[in-house]
Write a structure and sequence with these properties.
Keywords: ATP-binding, Nucleotide-binding, Transport. By secondary structure, the protein is α/β, with parallel strands linked by helices. The protein has a domain at 36-59 and 87-228: P-loop containing nucleotide triphosphate hydrolases (Rossmann fold, 3-Layer(aba) Sandwich). Helices cover 31% and strands 27% of the residues. The strands form two sheets. Strands 6-7-8-3-9-10-11 form a seven-stranded mixed beta sheet, with helices on both faces. Strands 2-1-4-5 form a four-stranded antiparallel beta sheet, covered by helices on one side. The radius of gyration is 18 Å and the shape is globular. The structure holds adenosine-5'-triphosphate. Residues 16-17, 25, 43, 45-51 line the site of adenosine-5'-triphosphate.
Length: 238
């Protein structure tokens, strides 16, 4: 496993609101995510987890400090730079966000076609192969309404991984699943991501999946700590 940083964050602060309503949400965040790592980010509701995830994903503008994703500085980055970085990232959310009017295969294929110019048939075969690798080979033509929660989440994983992202950002991917499906879904993400050498960051409240991470980090009131009993503020040197 190579240990090149995929994300390097130094002294990152984040604020919402303006003037007298301005409120600091993230305080002096320092973090490094390496290639192929599976990291879980936990913390109480409102501690800033989603805010940090969306900043790393180029889904909102970073304001102060430094946030580098794949070597690209995102603090004060222009919109088109954020759009560019998003091509290298796969997103998985709690509410799987599948399009109901498309089959499992079409949902996955849409992502292939957005990411690369492919002949339609090639994109279709690639999507079917990806669905097979998440155990849904017999469900490729099913619409989301005819799939279980776990199966829908597997389609979302297939869609996120089909374009070989460098990093997967998953926000509460197991929240709507029972314990066994939740474990299976994370195991699958882990296995596929390892094969592709892709980094995974999972935001979760779900204590049932904590054992699956290489590393656990924790946010409390906007401050980031290395997880575990003896919590230590994260610092990066050099
Ligand atoms: N767009 C916004 N404008 C203003 N405040 C916001 C905005 N988004 C989030 N916040 C505030 O920022 C803080 C952190 O929110 P965030 O969603 O990042 O927390 P979280 O740890 O992901 O919470 P949860 O576990 O409940 O999803 C909260 O106080 C929230 O109210």
């Amino acid at each position: 496993m190579t240990q090149k940083p995929v994300v390097t964050i130094k002294n990152l602060d984040h604020y919402f609101g303006e003037g007298s309503l301005k409120k600091q949400i993230l305080f002096d965040i320092n973090l490094e995510l390496k290639s192929g790592e599976v990291v879980i980010l936990k913390g109480p509701s409102g501690s800033g987890k989603t805010t940090l995830l969306t900043l790393m994903g180029g889904l909102r503008s970073a304001q102060t400090g430094s946030l580098k994703v794949l070597g690209q500085e995102l603090v004060k980055a222009k919109k088109d730079q954020l759009v560019k970085i998003r091509r290298y990232i796969g997103y998985i959310f709690q509410a799987h966000n599948l399009l109901d009017c498309l089959t499992a295969r079409q949902n996955v294929q849409m992502s292939v076609e957005l990411h690369e110019l492919k002949y339609k048939d090639e994109a279709k075969q690639k999507s079917i192969a990806m669905l097979e690798s998440v155990g849904l080979g017999d469900r490729v033509n099913y619409y989301p309404k005819n799939l279980s929660g776990g199966q829908k989440q597997r389609v979302a994983i297939a869609r996120a991984l089909v374009s070989h992202p460098k990093m997967i950002l998953a926000d509460e991917p197991t929240a709507s699943l029972d314990s066994k499906s939740g474990h299976d879904v994370v195991e699958l993400m882990q296995e596929l991501a390892r094969k592709q050498g892709c980094t995974i960051l999972i935001v979760t409240h779900d204590n049932r999946i904590l054992d699956m991470a290489d590393r656990i980090i924790e946010l409390e009131d906007g401050h980031l700590f290395e997880g575990g009993k003896n919590k230590k503020a994260l610092t990066i040197t050099g």
